[in-house]
Amino acid sequence: MYLIRLAVFLLFQFSVSAVAQDMETSETVWAVFAFNVHGDSIPDILPQPRTLSPIGAQNLYDVGSAFRNRYVMGAASNVDETASPDFLVKDLAQHRLNADEVKIYSGWDQHVQASALAFMQGFYPPITGQNDSFLYVDDTYLLANGSIATSPLNDYQYPRIYAAGAADPNSIYVSGQGDCEMHRISELQYQYSPEGQSVEDDTAEFYSSLYDQAFEGVVDAAWVSYANAMEISEYLEYGYVHNASLQGSVTASDLQRARVLADQYAFATNGNVSASGLYEGDMIRAIAGRTLARLILESFEENMETQGASSKMTLLFGGPEPIVAFSALAQLASSMNSNFYGRPVPGASLILEMFSMNSSLDPTYPDISDLYVRFIFRNSTSTNEEFTQYPLFGMSPSLIDTPFLEFSAALGGVLLPSTEEWCNTCNSSSIFCVGSSPSEIKPAKPSLSLAGAGAIGAAVTLGVMCLVGIIGWLCGIGIYRKHKQLKDDGFKGGTKLEGDRDVAFTSPRNGLFAGAVMGSGRQAAKSHERTGSWEMKNKRRSAEISQERLDGEDEIEEATANAEPVKVHEAV
Ligand SMILES: *[C@@H]1O[C@H](CO)[C@@H](O)[C@H](O)[C@H]1NC(C)=O
Ligand SMILES: *[C@@H]1O[C@H](CO)[C@@H](O)[C@H](O)[C@H]1NC(C)=O
Ligand SMILES: *[C@@H]1O[C@H](CO)[C@@H](O)[C@H](O)[C@H]1NC(C)=O
Ligand SMILES: *[C@@H]1O[C@H](CO)[C@@H](O)[C@H](O)[C@H]1NC(C)=O
Ligand SMILES: *[C@@H]1O[C@H](CO)[C@@H](O)[C@H](O)[C@H]1NC(C)=O
Ligand SMILES: *[C@@H]1O[C@H](CO)[C@@H](O)[C@H](O)[C@H]1NC(C)=O
Ligand SMILES: *[C@@H]1O[C@H](CO)[C@@H](O)[C@H](O)[C@H]1NC(C)=O
Question: Which Gene3D superfamilies has this protein been placed in (predicted)?
Answer without folding.
Answer: Phosphoglycerate mutase-like
